[in-house]
Design goal:
This protein is an alpha+beta fold. It folds into three domains: 168 residues, Hydrophobic Seed Protein (Orthogonal Bundle); 150 residues, Hypothetical protein af1432; 58 residues, no CATH class. The strands form three sheets. Strands 3-4-5-2-1-6-7 form a seven-stranded mixed sheet. A two-stranded parallel sheet has the order 8-9. Helix 6 runs antiparallel to helix 9, helix 11 packs across helix 17 and helix 14 runs antiparallel to helix 15. The protein is elongated. The chain starts with a strand and ends with a helix. Bound molecules: adenosine-5'-triphosphate (ATP) and magnesium ion. The site of adenosine-5'-triphosphate has 9 residues, from helix 6.
Length: 439
């Protein structure tokens, strides 16, 4: 039994948190039988492909039977055949950094490295095992996996491997959408997402896996931008803070925020390029695109909202403007702010002063709203009786209702007793005047 795959790679990179993969000469039936006789929990959904899932020490571990030389090339989906040696198995793996193995049952075993994987790991290189174009033809998903590892690890792609990717990229069209989307999603969430996206374009995969974005390349912008729409998009995905419960939607919104631009571009009277309504047009395109990619519904809604609103620019010092802004965002103002900050990262001007003021204003408004939900008149009945030296009666309820309504409307800050007293005095003057007129 051999430790293989991502866990070994990430261990050598001192990058933890990876599920373990093992390879063995035992056939799936035998692995299953051993597992059952030991009474460990098993998953057999991958059995047809040689993989049994085993729960070991509370962690899901995959045990896969050695692969044999089965690929014929061509378009037919190859059947999995099993091999009998680890050498044969490693030769079937995609990249040298993934083709390392270590005997797992003998403590202190050396690493088996047939293709220079450790050297490539140290140098930060993604290199195909064997003849690149042939390996990508066998399974074009390897192209995207290679770009994904480059984006996750910050590695370069070896020139011969890159050339093989470019040569075979049209075959990506034959893959299922699920397999493409899984890799694409990992690329955009990765620490080197920007480099990953540039590689997607470089190998010619963009028109195949994201044709809607292809017109961004070479779509020149006005003097506020250092880049064309594509370069700006790449910089925005790289810059967006990928954190919070909706990090995924943020990242996709960064990728798609200017989707509408190439479709609405026009010359303004001052000679600059204009992109009027690109936010609205982009927001119409987003759900169609993301549904095709089979992105989860909840993310589609949020990405669409963020794209639609990314040009909103409320005045931080104007309460009503800030409240209108917040009311359109259904609680996702922090996600929109993260997008706006990232969007600004590749502009020639620095908008951070504005974004900091907007963030503070939003935080204040949200805190006020939380207080207003517990909206109470800043003055109690006793406060009012003491203020006006008057018998308790229905007048107290009238005043308190009025004051709490003003707190709810945002016209009176919660707990602001001085302001509340001035209002109460004004109301009482009116009331006395009415009483006198009646007499
Ligand atoms: P991660 O789990 O972080 O995605 P990983 O390298 O473990 O990375 P897996 O998809 O879990 O990737 O695959 C485990 C191993 O199986 C890989 O390291 C690689 O050796 C091999 N492998 C996976 N997919 C392919 C493929 N399409 N072609 C060739 N080998 C593959
Ligand atoms: Mg893995």
């Amino acid at each position: 039994m051999w430790a293989v795959g991502g866990a070994l790679r990430d261990e050598l990179l001192a990058r933890g948190g990876h599920d373990e993969d093992f390879a063995t000469d035992a056939l799936p039936d035998e692995v299953e039988e051993v597992g059952r006789s030991l009474g460990v929990p098993l998953v057999t959904v991958g059995k047809r492909f040689g993989t049994i899932g085993v729960l070991l020490d509370g962690r899901w571990t995959e045990i896969t039977t050695f692969r044999g030389d089965s690929y014929e090339g061509g378009t037919r989906w190859p059947d999995v055949t099993f091999g009998s040696t680890i050498e044969e198995d490693l030769a079937r793996r995609d990249f040298t950094v993934n083709a390392l193995a270590r005997e797992a049952t003998t403590p202190g075993s050396a690493i088996l490295d047939l293709f220079g994987g450790r050297e490539d790991l140290a140098a930060g290189i993604i290199r195909a095992v064997g003849e690149p174009a042939r390996r990508f033809r066998e399974d074009p998903l390897r192209i995207l996996r290679g770009l994904r590892f480059a984006a996750q690890l910050g590695f370069e792609i070896e020139p011969g491997t890159l050339a093989g990717m470019r040569e075979t990229a049209p075959l990506l069209a034959s893959l299922s959408q699920e397999r493409i989307t899984t890799e694409l999603d990992k690329i955009v969430q990765a620490p080197w997402a920007g480099d990953g996206l540039e590689l997607v374009r470089e190998v010619g995969a963009l028109p195949i896996i994201l044709p809607e974005l292809a017109p961004m390349v070479g779509c020149e912008q006005n003097s506020f931008h250092q880049f064309d729409v594509w370069g700006h998009t790449v910089a925005t995905v790289q810059a967006v803070a990928k954190e919070g419960p909706d990090a995924r939607a943020r990242t996709w919104a960064a990728l798609l925020h200017d989707l509408g631009k190439p479709y609405v571009r026009h010359r303004k009277t001052n000679g600059e390029w204009g992109f009027y309504r690109h936010d609205a047009v982009g927001a119409e395109m987003v759900p169609v695109l993301l549904d095709r990619l089979r992105i989860a519904r909840k993310d589609v809604h949020l990405v669409t909202l963020l794209v639609r609103r990314h040009m909103d620019r409320p005045k931080p010092e104007d309460r009503r403007s800030v409240r209108r802004f917040l009311s359109k965002l259904g609680g996702h103002w922090e996600d929109l702010l993260a997008l706006k900050r990232a969007d600004n990262a590749s502009h020639t001007y620095d908008d951070e002063g504005y974004h900091a003021a907007l963030e503070a204003a939003c935080r204040r408004a949200v805190a006020e709203d939380a207080a207003a939900l517990r909206a109470e008149s800043p003055l109690s009945g006793d406060d009012l009786v003491a203020m006006f030296d008057r018998e308790p009666g229905p007048w107290i309820r009238v005043l308190k209702d009025r004051l709490s309504a003003m707190v709810l409307d945002g016209d009176l800050a919660p707990g602001d007793q001085d302001h509340a007293r001035r209002i109460a005095r004004g109301m009482m003057r009116e009331k006395r005047k009415e009483e006198r007129e009646k007499e």
